[in-house]
């Protein structure tokens, strides 16, 4: 087997719940659920009772009636993420952020100055624990895929190194659900075919896997099962979008309520654009209905923008087009993402610029919030409502 185990996958454990337990010592060792209507995160004490992310709040409380339910505090989670990513980048310049709580790190060139990959991983975990106060699991392997599987197997608060000569013995006995890209539907399809372990999938010919699972999915999963994953840690990738969403629970929501939520999401995302000197061209509305079907609607504007009013008008139009389906099926999740991102200074505005007043308002609001906090000023429609519920989908790590 060629290569060395130099890729780290670092993944914070039960991230949101761990932040809550860190900040409130009375919660440590107790089952904690973040989010009421729908579970956004669960501590390992709650997971041991069967509570899972995205589960309905009522079902979670039935499984774990003594759980402490806390509202999400997205600013606290974002701050913790920034602190952890600073440690990642202090460990190695080769960091690929995957989400708010996990990343790949390539440490192969650091042996002379920092030690073996395992020694680096040990120090990384110690720093995250002592400097940020959070548990983190790390997998070390030759490829990104194996490192990610190793970190998952090592949880909670663990470290697992998979050396090249140990890869088959480690991976092949694992359930197929461990493969990156196997969800519930694919797993059920494989189970019906009598394929329950990675090794059983690896025994198939590639053509057979493609015929059973579809060409793209079959080829991808078969390659992983055969230990083929050539992707390097990608430090140049930039997020193609930013987004935020809200889980709503199962109670009926009026269009006025949904418009308020939409306004809060857009307000926050547009400010994030301006903070990063970015603009977007495409607005994407994501919905999950009461029957758990999903819908995605998008619209691309003619000129790139970072204006709250422009993004909000597009988002409202997309929501209005989905109103009949919402009325028929109910809604359990609403989200917005902004894509086709570009740098603000690369845009040549065209005249006439019709959003001058909106630009001035955005600038004033941003300045007030920078000085006095995100909750210091709000649009009139948001008064009396907590703006801190929205959940970042994949924040930018630049």
Kindly describe this structure:
With 398 residues, the protein is an alpha+beta fold. The chain folds into 3 domains: 1-165, Reverse transcriptase/Diguanylate cyclase domain (Alpha-Beta Plaits, 2-Layer Sandwich), CATH 3.30.70.270; 172-225, DNA polymerase, domain 1 (Orthogonal Bundle), CATH 1.10.150.20; 241-392, 2-Layer Sandwich (Dna Ligase, domain 1). 42% of the residues lie in helices and 19% in strands. It has 15 helices and 14 strands. The strands form 3 sheets. Strands 9, 10, 11, 12, 13 and 14 form a 6-stranded antiparallel β-sheet that branches. It has a 5-stranded mixed β-sheet with strand order 5-6-1-7-8. Strands 3-2-4 form a 3-stranded mixed β-sheet. Helix 13 (255-275) runs antiparallel to helix 14 (308-329). The longest helix is centred in the C-terminal third of the chain and has 22 residues, at 308-329. The chain is globular and about 60 Å long. The two termini are 34 Å apart.
